[in-house]
Amino acid sequence: MKYKVFVDGQEGTTGLKIFEYLAKLSDIEVLRIDSDKRKNPEERSKFLNGADIVFLCLPDSAAKESIELVKNDKTRIINTSTAFRTDKNWAYGLPELKNQREVIQTASRVSVPGCHATGFILTIRPLIEAGILPEDYPVTCYSLTGYSGAGKSGIEEYENSVLAAERKLHVPRHYALQHNHKHIPEMLMYSGLLYEPLFTPIKANYAQGLAMSVPLISRILPKNASAKDVHEALSAYFESERFVHVMPYDSEAYLDEGQFMISECNHTNRLEIFVFGQEGKVNIISRYDNLGKGASGAAVQNMNIMLGLDEGNSLVN
Ligand SMILES: NC(=O)C1=CN([C@@H]2O[C@H](COP(=O)(O)OP(=O)(O)OC[C@H]3O[C@@H](n4cnc5c(N)ncnc54)[C@H](OP(=O)(O)O)[C@@H]3O)[C@@H](O)[C@H]2O)C=CC1
Ligand SMILES: CC(=O)N[C@@H](CCC(=O)OP(=O)(O)O)C(=O)O
């Protein structure tokens, strides 16, 4: 028997990428809604209720509408938007967190983590659990991302040369400077921190690839923990993970003339964590594809877990 899968938002950035992954799977029958009816609630309702698994790849408001349209107990939902990530009735789809795989396996509602939140939580939570980072540490972090994270309209701004020139988009931009980025609530809830991190995202003129950087200062860590201690704790936590890899300590060999390469995980579901450090200063950088482990890849990984399939199905090249 094949599982029936419907992608609500099939023509958007995340939806299209999920389709690419699903096309490689033989256990899946993809249900396709007519393009001109894709926003018609009545038509969507038939697909939503006829599927075993639904991916919601929609703006928050439309995702909430889809949930209202599901009238049975059978359809299991994977939502890529921010709408339900801190809702206790939804499982948080980050299987690399301790015991989270088991939660996802049996859940009927799973939220795919936000792209910035993914690298942040995977950096902070293991360090708190290892007793290296106190839960009240005043964490700051910044993330450099490609513009595809902004969806169709955001991509259009950058790829339409007239619009891009008008808005001077050739240079990087800080945003959410009022400390109001939509990922902060989930970053707080799942990192184990007591207080919100001070988070600054930066969007730049390239399509794909994200690097989340978290600096730490040893002298305010318990036992003056060093970069090497941080590296050891993260390596132990992710030791047996397939998609999260802690790279060799102080990985000069992975730099290009001393400079970090953001896009090396593009078109994969891989997330790589680097720890750099010197004289009591620790810099942890995770890099991944915002459309891979930051969105569509993570969504498909969750589906594989929910259906009891091999977790890497269609995700490993
Ligand atoms: N891009 C990324 O890197 C990431 C995105 N996300 C989240 O995933 C969700 C989807 O994002 P993304 O794919 O980038 O967004 P896009 O804007 O690229 O795509 C959204 C799709 O939803 C469709 N849509 C809008 N309203 C409705 C509706 N009422 N009924 C049915 N379809 C509708 C749009 O239609 P139309 O084709 O007419 O525009 C579009 O095809 C968002 O909530 C986003 O925040 C999450 C992680 C990363
Ligand atoms: C470049 C860009 O604009 N990125 C988006 C995040 C993309 C993402 O992860 O959005 P969801 O929370 O909806 O999943 C942003 O920072 O708002």
UniProtKB/TrEMBL annotation:
Its main location: cytoplasm. It catalyses: N-acetyl-L-glutamate 5-semialdehyde + phosphate + NADP(+) = N-acetyl-L-glutamyl 5-phosphate + NADPH + H(+). GO terms for cellular component: cytoplasm. InterPro entries: AGPR, AGPR_dimerisation_dom, AGPR_type-2, NAD(P)-bd_dom_sf, Semialdehyde_DH_NAD-bd. The active site is at C115. Keywords: Amino-acid biosynthesis, Arginine biosynthesis, Cytoplasm, NADP, Oxidoreductase. The keyword Ribonucleoprotein does not apply. GO terms for biological process: L-arginine biosynthetic process. Pathway: Amino-acid biosynthesis; L-arginine biosynthesis; N(2)-acetyl-L-ornithine from L-glutamate: step 3/4. GO terms for molecular function: N-acetyl-gamma-glutamyl-phosphate reductase activity; NAD binding. Belongs to the NAGSA dehydrogenase family. Type 2 subfamily. Catalyzes the NADPH-dependent reduction of N-acetyl-5-glutamyl phosphate to yield N-acetyl-L-glutamate 5-semialdehyde. PANTHER family: N-ACETYL-GAMMA-GLUTAMYL-PHOSPHATE REDUCTASE, CHLOROPLASTIC-RELATED, N-ACETYL-GAMMA-GLUTAMYL-PHOSPHATE REDUCTASE, CHLOROPLASTIC-RELATED-RELATED. This is N-acetyl-gamma-glutamyl-phosphate reductase.
